[in-house]
Amino acid sequence: MTHSEARERVLQAAERLFAERGYTAVTIKDIAAAAGIHHASLYHHAPQGKEGLFVEIMERILSRHQQGISDAVRAGGDDLRAQLRGIAAWMVAQAPMDMVRLTHSDMPAIDPASARMLGDLAFETMIVPIVRVLFAARARGEIVPGDLGNLAGGIFSMLQGLHTLPDAYLERSRLDMANELIDVMLAGMKAR
């Protein structure tokens, strides 16, 4: 196995463990065991240690989200419903971003400068694209004025919240539920 193959195994193991348990609950030994290497060897592949791995993993995840969301928006053309449904399809197909744990547990446990950088990157990657879609829709006259930042945060949270539903209780796909929520949001709930 080459150094790059072993490093990629370390990164994949760390990503899975951080996603499952969060930063504070994962140890270097956990990552090494999941990657199939001795924990002392881990520092050869991750010289910045656990925090450096966490920051690198979060940057990788957010980079994937940035590309996936951008592709979804582009594929939706100038149609708000299509853009939001594309974003929903991307987000429900990915592992959830546990923003509550990230904000209240993981970020306070790392260097404040790294936490700030990751927080800014998460906002730019996950919320700002939705804000832009909403502003463009408002400029086209598709939606009425409102607090579009708040709305974007609500859309993100709504889509991420679908990951919390246990599979055993799903009567239809998360994507079908996301699309219904988007349709209700666009049409409103009141009878007309």
Tell me the layout of helices and strands:
Blueprint: H1 3-21, H2 28-35, H3 39-45, H4 49-75, H5 80-93, H6 99-106, H7 112-139, H8 148-161, H9 174-187
Helix pairs in contact: 1-2, 1-4, 2-3, 4-5, 4-7, 5-7, 5-9, 7-8
Account of the 3D structure:
By secondary structure, this protein is mainly alpha-helical. The chain has 2 domains: 47 residues, Homeodomain-like (Arc Repressor Mutant, subunit A, Orthogonal Bundle), CATH 1.10.10; 139 residues, Tetracycline Repressor, domain 2 (Orthogonal Bundle). It contains 9 helices and no strands.
**CATH class call of the largest domain:** Mainly Alpha
Count of alpha/pi helices: 9
Work out the number of β strands.
Answer: 0
Helix fraction by DSSP (H/I, runs of at least 4): over 70%
Unreliable stretches (pLDDT < 50, length at least 5) are none
Count of the domains: 2
Average pLDDT confidence is: 92
Name given to the CATH homologous superfamily of the largest domain: Tetracycline Repressor, domain 2
Shape from CA axes? elongated
In terms of structural class, how would the helical and strand content be classed? mainly alpha
CATH topology of the largest domain: Tetracycline Repressor, domain 2
Order of helices and strands: HHHHHHHHH
Span between N and C termini? 64 Å
